[in-house]
């Protein structure tokens, strides 16, 4: 799931508002001068720029679904704020810097920013997976975690209720495994560097991370995965793994066996 997390405060020239917290029911003040449109779901607020009403309504409905899925895993209410710029260029300005080409949505602080053209090209399942993935980043945070854990966790939540078979959701990795090539280590920052030169490697990085988190939920429990995530944010991943009798090295070994079992 290609996306990007920005820790930067959004400072683009278009951004005129101090965004309300995602949990607030208040309407954000004008995001774009005079042209902001807003839709409300049961749990979500969607703010668009010249966005068709039907698109806003669909996003509010999908953001509500995503919120329920994330809340079900995290055990806490989630109230999404989704921002829909008019174009990918406008999305790039909103996040301040960094390419958004190829991204369908991204987490940016307390909000999810949708890249309209790329999002529109996704099928309905993909739209729900992407929104749920990004909303997981917003709700759970990513600081101080290795990328395999925060990207894998976001995909764990994103795919949990999507109804896709593992070899379908992890098609690129499945191809490698069937060719006899198992990944040797959990994907690090270099594997997630979305420079566009090797999109298949990037796809596999997400799939590898996803299966690491899915392994933890399958072999221990979903609650264990959530507690590990929280503990790793506080103390680092090695210390968080210790109560499970795991280290990163032994997790890696067991994850490789799980990947072979799921995709071989
Ligand atoms: Zn992500």
Task: Walk me through the topology.
Blueprint (H helix, E strand, L loop, with lengths): L4 E2 L29 E5 L4 E5 L3 H22 L6 E4 L3 H8 L9 E4 L2 E4 L1 H5 L3 H17 L6 H14 L5 H4 L1 H8 L10 H4 L6 H21 L2 H14 L1 H5 L6 H16 L1
Parallel strand pairs: 1-5, 3-4, 4-6
Antiparallel strand pairs: 2-3, 5-6
Helix pairs in contact: 1-4, 4-5, 5-9, 9-10, 9-12
The chain binds zinc ion (ZN).
Zinc ion (ZN) binds next to helix 4 and helix 5.
Class per helix and strand makeup? alpha/beta
DSSP E strands, number:
6
Mean pLDDT level = 88
Shape: globular
The molecules bound to the chains, other than polymers, are: zinc ion
Number of domains: 2
Strand content: 5-15%
Number of helices: 12
Please identify the top-level CATH class of the largest domain: Alpha Beta
CATH architecture of the largest domain: 2-Layer Sandwich
Distance between the termini: 22 Å
Q: What can you tell me about this protein's structure?
A:
The protein is an alpha/beta fold. The protein folds into two domains: 5-140, 2-Layer Sandwich (Zincin-like); 147-263, no CATH class. 52% of the residues lie in helices and 9% in strands. The protein contains twelve helices and six strands. The chain has helices at residues 53-74, 88-95, 116-120, 124-140, 147-160, 166-169, 171-178, 189-192, 199-219, 222-235, 237-241, 248-263; strands spanning 5-6, 36-40, 45-49, 81-84, 105-108, 111-114. Strands 1-5-6-4-3-2 form a six-stranded mixed β-sheet. A hairpin with a 4-residue loop joins strand 2 and strand 3 (45-49). Helix 1 crosses helix 4 (124-140). The radius of gyration is 18 Å and the shape is globular. The two termini are 22 Å apart. Residues 1-27 have low confidence and may be disordered.
